[in-house]
Write a structure and sequence with these properties.
Length: 320
């Protein structure tokens, strides 16, 4: 049976790419003021992965991310005001101001809570996939994680369990070649991640140029197969590049672990600009204006929201 993949809507795709890029640039602008109360791990440069993968998702599909999840949160349609309020530590934040950037969550949009501990959100995503399979409504889970997370044992346990039980989960590795400052050459004996994954019987694909349309197509095919029960889990490794420092908002090309030439090569292939360039200029500027308004309103909301009541210090922090 052939699988129908929905047509690309370039306006929607650009809106998402631009929203993520501009929201994170605004976070970087505000950050030095100390209004943002948590460390931030930006995805500027990596937007194509979240946007390409989330574009074919249904609103009731589930997404799981990491501490670097502003992008997947926005790509899945998470509440932008609650995102900014969370960064500001405000009561109206998506985790009531107690989690900050690394602990985003929005269950109204099926965005699972994220964690600072590398690899830990992968098995939680698998747990949701078990629940969705039992539910039987064709919903799927996407688990996003970095290349560093594939060094955790739980990644391989999760692959095996998902393959064994044919769970509807799409594993997406955002391979930016770095775990903090350590390059992949010093961490991986071989680059054959997809081959390692295939040994579990999971189809694995690699996108090396960050092309958002290729990523979208592969994700759409995998998701469509899982929805109908025709196929089990799938894996996509997306090469990508983080333009700013690991944590914080600086450009860190003088820190000695990577070169600005590398950045320039990736910037020449910037998917935000490339997709924007496919639009009619008038259409493009009205999308950009709408994005600016949405972000400005979210910032204003965060600024005007109250901090949590001190009496709530330990509420929703410990079980029971
Ligand atoms: C279990 C665990 N080990 C180590 C760390 C320290 N640490 C924080 S981020 C990070 C790098 C992870 O890199 P990757 O998974 O590739 O994600 P990226 O930051 O590139 O998005 C490490 C080692 C941690 N938070 N948790």
């Amino acid at each position: 049976m052939s699988i129908a993949i929905p047509q690309v809507d370039y306006r929607l795709l650009y809106r998402k790419l631009r929203l993520i890029r501009r929201a994170e640039e605004e976070i970087a602008r505000i950050y030095p003021s100390d209004k943002i109360k948590s460390p931030v791990h930006l995805s500027i440069g990596q937007e194509a992965v979240s946007v390409g993968v989330c574009d074919p998702l249904r609103p009731d599909d589930v997404v799981s991310g990491t501490y670097r999840s502003h992008a997947s949160y926005m790509a899945k349609g998470g509440n932008l005001r609650a995102l900014f309020a969370e960064l500001y530590g405000k009561d109206t934040g998506c985790a009531r101001g107690k989690g900050g950037s690394m602990h985003l969550v929005d269950m109204n949009h099926y965005i699972l809570g994220t964690s600072a501990v590398v690899g830990t959100t992968i098995p939680i995503a698998i747990g949701y996939a078990v629940a969705l399979k039992r539910e039987g409504n064709g919903r799927v889970v996407v688990a996003f994680f970095g290349d560093g997370a594939t060094e955790e044992g739980v990644f391989y346990e999760s692959l095996n369990f998902a393959a064994l039980h044919r769970l509807p989960v799409l594993f997406v590795c955002e391979n930016n070649f770095l775990a903090i400052h350590t390059p992949i050459e010093k961490r991986w004996a071989t680059r054959q991640l997809c081959e390692r994954v295939r040994t579990y019987g999971i189809p694995a694909h690699q996108v090396t140029d960050s092309d958002v349309l290729k990523i979208r197509q592969l994700a759409a095919e995998a998701i469509a197969g899982m929805r109908t029960g025709q196929s089990g889990p799938a894996f996509i490794e997306c090469y990508t590049y983080r333009w700013r420092e690991h944590v914080g908002t600086r450009e860190d090309y003088d820190d000695g672990y990577r070169s600005r030439d590398e950045l320039l090569r990736w910037q020449a292939n910037d998917q935000v600009a490339l997709i924007g360039g496919r639009l009619d200029p008038g259409e493009r500027s009205s999308i950009e204006a709408a994005v600016e308004r949405e972000i400005a309103q979210a910032i204003e909301f965060a600024e005007n929201s109250p901090f949590p009541d001190p009496k709530e210090l330990s509420t929703n922090v410990f079980a029971g």
